[in-house]
Amino acid sequence: MHQLFRLVLGQKDLSRAGDLFSLDDSEIEDSLTEALEQIKIISSSSDYQTNNNDQAVVEICITRITTAIRETESIEKHAKALVGLWDSCLEHNLRPSGKDEDTPHAKIASDIMSCILQNYNRPPVMALAIPIAVKFLHRGTKELCRNMSNYLSLAAISKADLLADHTEVIVKSILQGMVKGLRTCVRSHLKVFSGSIYVWWKVRPRVLEAS
């Protein structure tokens, strides 16, 4: 890992975090997976949700990492680590109490979501991301769910069969009115989803009951 990433993440040094933007993308690209893994460790610590310094360090580092991934077009190389960090957010509280701002882990999920799902036309990336993305449909905030459904609709346009294995979750979300964008997606790709019609019908009573 690049020595500046090692310093900033290892010591959680907020005073040096901004210096990451002075480095060329190509200079840090090889370090991104390891940096993401270190961020996952930091964000999983017991005091992360109350540690403002650590949250600020993580936020800055994620911004730098996602920028470098886009500029170097290296999403496929770092997708596993990026999706791994994204998935780890589901282990924590994502919904704020009352009208408070997003929780720390909801911020992480939101910050990396677009970096992952903007690559909806890259099947290898989507194969890793979609199983995690559908989990957010019931676990995330309303804003996160809305954005997620929009990206998943785009993914369906490119590779609808990747969503077919998650029919039950998607249909449940549609019936509960949570992800309106996906309704058009399913209707437009009915042939792909037709193999799961029986599952839809079987789960429908439970879905309506849960609603």
Automatic annotation (TrEMBL):
Bilayer disposition of the protein: Peripheral membrane protein
Keyword terms of this UniProt record: Membrane
Gene Ontology annotations of biological process type: regulation of signal transduction
InterPro entries from the UniProt entry: Melted-like (IPR039888)
Presence of keyword Nucleus: no
Keyword Membrane: yes
Single GO molecular function: phosphatidylinositol-5-phosphate binding
CC terms in the record's Gene Ontology section: endomembrane system; plasma membrane
Name of the protein: Ventricular zone expressed PH domain containing 1
Superkingdom to which the source organism belongs: Eukaryota
Subcellular location: Endomembrane system
